[in-house]
Every structure is written in C-alpha cells, then in structure tokens.
Amino acid sequence: MSKKPLILGIESSCDETAASIITENEDGIPIVLSNIISSQVDVHKEFGGVVPELAARSHMEKIDLIVKKAINDSGHKIEEINAVASTAGPGLIVCLSVGLSFGKAFAASLNIPFIAVNHLEGHALSPKLNSNLNYPYLLLLISGGHSQFLNVQNLGKYKRLGTTIDDALGEAFDKTAKLLGIEFPGGPQIEILAKKGDPDRYNLPKPIINKGGCNLSFAGLKTAILKITKDIKTDQEKFDLAASFQKTVEKILYKKTKIAFIEFEKQITTKKKIFVVAGGVAANKNIRSMLNNLCKEKDYQSMFPPIEICGDNAAMIALVGLEKFKLKQFNDLDYPAKPRWSLDENAKFLKGAGVRL
Ligand code: KG4
Ligand code: ZN
After folding, report:
1. What is the pLDDT of residue 353?
2. 191 and 88 in a common domain
3. Which of 87, 95, 143 to mutate to test the pocket of ligand 1 (most atoms within 8 A of CB)?
4. Is residue 127 in contact with ligand 1, taking CB distance under 6 Å?
C-alpha cells in the first residue's frame, strides 16, 4: 500500500480562522481527518459587518491554536505532514496575510512544499469532499463576495459564463437582513423567517432578468427592499418581505441557470451534464431544492457540498492542495496575497456604472 499524502489546509480570507488535515484513500477519494473552524461572529456583531483590522487581529490570536488542534484531531504528527496549502486570495489582504504567512513559515520550517490556493477554487471543488466528481462541470458559485456561473474544465481551468454586475447574492441576503433589523450575520436568518411569510405579498424587481445572458444583478432588490422597510410595522410584514425576497431570488436563479445550461452545453463535448452549486448561499435549502428540480427537468446531475462545507472552511483549501500536490504544482515562498483573484483570468471585469451587457 503506497503512502498517501497528508495535507494541511489553512483558511483566513475573511472572518473564519480554519485549519484542516486531509488525505485520500486507495481510490483517490479525499478523507477529511480534521476540519476546525473558528468563526469571529462575536467580534464583528456590534459593528454589523466584518471589520478588517479586528478580523486580522483575531486570526493572529487564534491561528496557531487552530492549526495545532487540526493536527491533534487528525491523529497524525506534525512531521508526517507532506505539504501546506494556504488561501492566498481573493479576500481581505490583512486577513489573507495571516494564514498565508503562517502556512509559508510552517512549510519552510518542515522543509515541505507550499501551495497557494484560490479560495474560490476551494468552493468550486468542495463537493469532491463527499462525492466523486469529474470534469467538466457547470458551477454556480454563490457566496458573500461572488456570484458566478463557470465552466470548470479542469483543476485551475475555468471559463466564466456569467457573473454579478453588482452585489453578490450572499451580500444581497445580508443587506436584506440588515434592513429587516436582523443581527449580523443575517443571511441564513432570512431563510428561516421566510418560512413564516407570504412570498406573494411584495412584488420585488428581478434586475436584468430578460437581458445579459446568465449575468446576474441584485443591487436593485436591495433598493426596493429599503423603500418597503420604511413602511413595515409588524413582524408578519417582515416575514412576508423575507419570503418575497427568497422567492424572487429563486426565480432569478431559475431563469439564469436555464440560460447557463445552454451556454455550458455549447462548450462541452461530454454527454453527461453535471451542475454543482457551492459557496455560502448553497446552504439555503429552498435554493438547493429548486435547483435540484431544475436539474431533473433538464437532465443534469446536481451536486451540492454538505451544508457544513458550504461556508468558509479549510478542508476545501486542503483539497485543492491535495490535487495540486499530486501534480507537483508547488509555489515559492514569496507568493503574494491577492485581494482580487479571478478563476477565469481572461474574463472581462463586469462591475460598476456603465457596464454594457
Ligand atoms: O462562502 P461564504 O461562507 O463566504 C464567502 O466566501 O463569501 O459565504 C457567506 C455568505 C454570507 O453572505 C451568508 O449570508 C450567506 O453566505 N449564507 C446564506 C445562507 N447561509 C450562508 N445565504 C442564504 N441562505 C443561507 N442559508
Ligand atoms: Zn467563501
């Protein structure tokens, strides 16, 4: 039996300090030996959002303990680790720098390879942590900072089909929550409140629904909600607005995913059609079930990471590290932190005023 690699993954791009140890079995299926996540919700709660300097300080205070715990829980010794993979971007530079520097120092001190990981690639590959998944596949990445449709052709090879031209979907959930007076981080709460409301009470806009291919836009929704919240007086009205928002988002994703299917099919030669949904918002059960039904309708195999792996974690970073390790794709220790780092480097920047679709 050949010795399987043991990879340490480190994640600190935003407000989660995380470390994980993974390996793989004889068939090349990843095995998560430990997955430690320390959230900073309490640090940022009173400010209603992530404060970069406080986040970085908290990462610095915790990173060694979190890594130590990940190694201890894995049942392995530090000397057995074969490579370190750290998130290098995209994210908050002061936060990225903590996990990146820690990972580099760790690799240097053990004289093992260092691997710089794109956080978005971690999300993109995350369903591989619990299932077999072959390239190519269509990915809908919906997180707090990104909303994109991508043709995932291979490790490190992405073709963007559509992106948000303004807010990310997670951001829209969080902003709606804030307007409804829900404590940070409010995104996941919207899904819960929506269950108690009437989804047809408020007619919200669906920006660029009939143009721009599978590009997305959510900023108009926030403006509409801001206007409505000014007149909201009862809890029931709050629930109804949350339900109307959830339903509108589902309608937008339904329509845009159908367009993305067509775009994706133009680019692939394989018969099997796979659709992966990943990122924090992929934890939303109603969105999962709606997209699952769409896949049945359109003959796609749908795949979602387990709910607990949808948000930021280091197992997905270690997983990218494992794939790169097997291909000997290592990085130098002067690899920079990249606050912006697109998966498809050739895709046009599509944000801000004056964007032409
Ligand atoms: O992937 P993630 O943990 O961090 C980023 O890389 O951005 O995504 C966080 C985002 C937040 O905006 C959060 O509100 C959203 O995912 N989110 C949800 C749910 N759980 C997390 N949005 C809607 N429904 C949920 N259940
Ligand atoms: Zn993320």
Report:
1. 60
2. no
3. 143
4. no
